[in-house]
């Protein structure tokens, strides 16, 4: 039986190398490739592959959002995340979404092929260390609004501009930032950004 794959990876060299590698296996066939999140979601739904291999850091729509959208339309699809973003919060969110596998991009070729077959067979493939770290980190304490504000702050956007972009009062933005700092037990907004990035909450 041939396992049909759709691969989403924004780095062209890596994407082409992965396709070439996977096509060497008699039981694996890449039926579609995408370099952007929206494209990956549409391709997966239209092609209905057995396994969707997703990078998290995709342009326009991240891999976690793609996984959620595809899972909603194709409940039986198997999803394997292949990414360099292995922070605890990211892993936890992926597992919450029902992702079947989570591997670092530095994984050996043989291990990737084995993981694809295992995921297709119904197994969950995640490093025990990653699972432990994800559980220890706990759930993301930030609300979607708080995350959006902190993401803008992380790019150096000052509160008045954040307020303009999000259609909020400047005082409201400053109140959110104060609340975020308290939630993360941070010293200041810079420390809050560092903590959120460390756990993959940002």
UniProtKB/TrEMBL annotation:
Under PANTHER family, the record lists:
TRANSCRIPTIONAL REGULATORY PROTEIN DESR, TWO-COMPONENT RESPONSE REGULATOR
- What PROSITE patterns is this protein classified in? HTH_LUXR_2, RESPONSE_REGULATORY
Q: What domain of life is recorded for the organism?
A: Bacteria
Which residues in this protein are found as 4-aspartylphosphate?
A: 55
What name appears for this protein in its UniProt entry? Response regulator transcription factor
| Gene3D superfamilies membership | 3.40.50.2300
> What keywords appear on the UniProt entry?
DNA-binding, Phosphoprotein
Q: Where is the HTH luxR-type domain?
A: 135-200
Q: What residue stretches are annotated with the Response regulatory domain? A: 4-120
